[in-house]
Structures are given as C-alpha cells and as structure tokens.
Design a protein that fits this description.
Layout: E1 3-8, H1 10-20, H2 22-31, H3 36-41, H4 48-70, H5 72-85, H6 89-96, E2 109-113, E3 124-131, E4 139-146, E5 152-157, E6 165-168, E7 173-179, H7 191-201, H8 205-214, E8 221-227, E9 233-238, E10 243-246, E11 251-253, H9 260-263, H10 288-302, H11 309-316, E12 338-346, E13 351-356, E14 365-368
Parallel strand pairs: 1-4
Antiparallel strand pairs: 2-3, 2-11, 3-12, 4-5, 5-6, 6-7, 7-8, 8-9, 9-10, 12-13, 13-14
Helix pairs in contact: 1-5, 4-5, 4-6, 5-6
Length: about 375
C-alpha cells in the first residue's frame, strides 16, 4: 500500500491521479457490470455492454448538473481523472455513483475518543468500512495538496478522490458511516465528494457543521463524526434534507440513527431485505447488524477506563463474545458487507493508520502529512 500524492489546481490533481491509477481504473471498468448494484440491476437477458452504456448516460444526466452547480472544483478534478485515465467523464461518474448505490450502504463501525480517554493523550477516531468485498482491491491512500484549498489525507475508492475517513492539514478529522434515510434526494452527488469539499474549506468543527447543514447532500443518509486536534467531538446525523447533532464526549456510531428526530425518517426497525437486494441479503433485517455492532462497541468501551491503542486494534478486530466472525461482528466477514478497510485517525499528529481488508488479517500501515 502506497500513498498517492497530488498537488496543483483541481484539474491537474485529477489528471495526475488518473494517470497514476490508469490501469486499475480500467480494470475496474472492465469488471463494472458484475459489481455492486449494477450486477443486481441488470436483467440477465440484457447484454452487459448495452446495459452499461444506457446506465452511464442516465447517471451522467442525474449527477453531472449537480456536480457543476454545487461542486464545480470537484467536477474539474473528475474531468482530470477521466483525461488521465483515458476515458469519458460519464464513465467516471458512473463508477463513483456506486458509493451511493442502495445495497452498498450496509456497514461501518466507528468510535471517537477524546485525549482524556486515551493512555497516549492523543484524541482518536477509528472506523471499519464495510462494503461489497469486490471493492477491496480498488482502494487507495491519497494526499491532496490543492492550489486553492487545505491539504487532505485519507482513503478513497477509485476512481473517486473523495474521502469518507481522513483529515486535513489543520487536524480536522472525519469518519462517515452510511445510514438508511427515507428522504427523497434532490441532489445526486456521492457524500465522499461533499466531504472532500468540506475538508478543503473548513478548519474547525463549527465551520464543518455549518458547511454540512447548508450544503446540497447526496441521496443517502449518513452519520458523520467530526473531531479536531483539541479533542472536540461532534456527530451529525444527516439525510438529504434533515440533520441532527449529537454532542457526546465518547462517540460510538454504526448505521442506525440515534436521535429521535432522525429516527422518524429512517427505514423501519423491522424492515428486511427483499429479493430485489443481492441474494446474500435476502430476508435479513436491515438494522440487525448495525444494532449488534453498536451494542458490542459500547460494551467493550465500558470495560476500559483509559484506552490504549492496542485496545482500539482489538475493538476493530473483534468477532464477538464467541469469537466467531460474521455479519453481526465489528470486524465483518460476509460475501457482501465485508470489512474492506479499517482506519485509525490521529488529529493531533495529523496522521492515519489503515489496513485494506479485514483488520483481523491485515497489518496497519502508517501515513502522515
């Protein structure tokens, strides 16, 4: 795992990113018809090439205008990625749309600890990212140094440059968990792009919260934990048109809303996956894994007064009381919502440790500005 460093204006950063990752982006494109919800959506009798061509045009119509209107600098960067990789920007848009594809929103476990809770005296944000297993090989660590914005460091799924777990040069740090909102979106932009724009423009938690309250947000719910180098922590539960802020000293978040306001616009607690979902999910209760993981993290933290870094590793690698990895454990092992990345963020040190794949099987690597 290597860190990709890009700098300059947004188009140049995208161009360099696309050139560096050209072969991996093309490999993903070649496999696209069999990935994520695209595989589920395509009728078996419809040729893959024709289906992708139609879907590409439809996705571009939905997303391009929103990108141009609300996030023009990020669109310039995506154009650079397309040129660097030697493909149409419409294909790049289709590929990044997989982040927001319905059944992909199945996971993530995160926790935030202020400095007074850690032995090392460093505030810590940590997150397991659960997503379809096939995306594991398409992850990167990227450091961006924009000409007209703050530098950022975090993890992305190519060809997107947006991050869902990372920080900026001022130590403003975020981890983002997907959630199941019933809000109907009016903006179709992946949240990683929104958060990239936020980190490039905000230095403090107050600025970040103000940005997220006002910005046009993509078509799915989220629970975002924000921390700064001084141990200040906030959680904002988001949907396309609503939000609620949690003010907590120690934070645990999975994929269900905690605040009463947001629970009113959430998929019902007893909802189950239908046969429109990938086969691996049929009949499962949507919120079950989220609730189990949330309870497990809370119970593990209750046994600890001061938390060491090794305690964080053990929590992220946890397989439950019985030690049996499954869809219900913090370190998830399934064919669909598997833990494909585990990241620990150190806002004060402006650094991250990350492992691509199940953290119980992988070693963390250290990256710093």
């Amino acid at each position: 795992m290597e860190k990709i460093l890009v700098s300059g204006d947004h188009y140049k950063m995208g161009l360099d990113y696309g050139r560096i990752l050209k072969h991996r982006i093309h490999k993903m494109m070649e496999n696209l018809a069999d990935m994520g919800t695209i595989k589920v959506m395509r009728p078996k009798i419809v040729p893959k090439k024709w289906f992708l061509s139609t879907l590409k045009k439809d996705t571009e119509k939905l997303m391009k205008n929103d990108l141009l209107k609300y996030y023009p600098r990020q669109f310039e960067r995506l154009k650079g990625v397309a040129d660097g990789a030697g493909m149409e920007v419409s294909m790049i848009i289709l590929m990044i749309s997989l982040e927001a594809s319905g059944f992909g929103l199945g996971g993530c476990t995160s926790l935030g600890l202020p400095s007074e809770r850690t032995v090392e005296g460093e505030p810590i944000l940590a997150r397991n990212f659960d997503f379809p297993l096939e995306f594991t090989e398409y992850q990167v660590v990227i450091e961006s140094r924009p000409k007209d914005g703050y530098g950022t460091l975090g993890c992305s799924i190519i060809p997107s440059h947006g991050i869902l777990d990372g920080l900026n040069e001022y130590g403003l740090s975020i981890v983002c968990n997907f959630a199941y909102s019933l809000d109907r979106p009016t903006c179709i932009v992946p949240l990683s792009i929104t958060l990239q724009e936020m980190l490039e423009n905000c230095r403090s938690i107050d600025e970040a919260l103000d940005f997220l309250k006002r910005c046009e947000r993509g078509g799915y719910g989220a629970i975002i934990t924000i921390m700064d180098a001084n141990s200040n922590i906030k959680v904002i539960e988001l949907s396309s048109h609503n939000y609620s802020i949690r003010d907590e000293n120690t934070v645990v978040a999975t994929n269900h809303y905690v605040t009463e306001k947001m629970q009113k616009i959430e998929i019902p607690k007893q909802a189950i996956y239908s046969k429109k979902a990938p086969k691996e999910l049929w009949g499962k209760r949507v919120h079950e894994s989220s609730e189990k993981r949330y309870t497990r993290v809370e119970s593990l933290l209750r046994t600890l007064d001061k938390v060491q870094e090794n305690n964080i590793f053990r929590i992220l690698r946890d397989h439950g009381e019985e030690g049996k990895p499954s869809d219900l454990t913090i370190c998830r092992h399934t064919q669909y919502h598997n833990t494909i990345r585990s990241t620990i963020i150190y806002p004060k040190s402006k650094a991250i440790k990350t492992a691509f794949g199940n953290p119980c099987e992988k070693e963390y690597q250290y990256f710093k500005f």
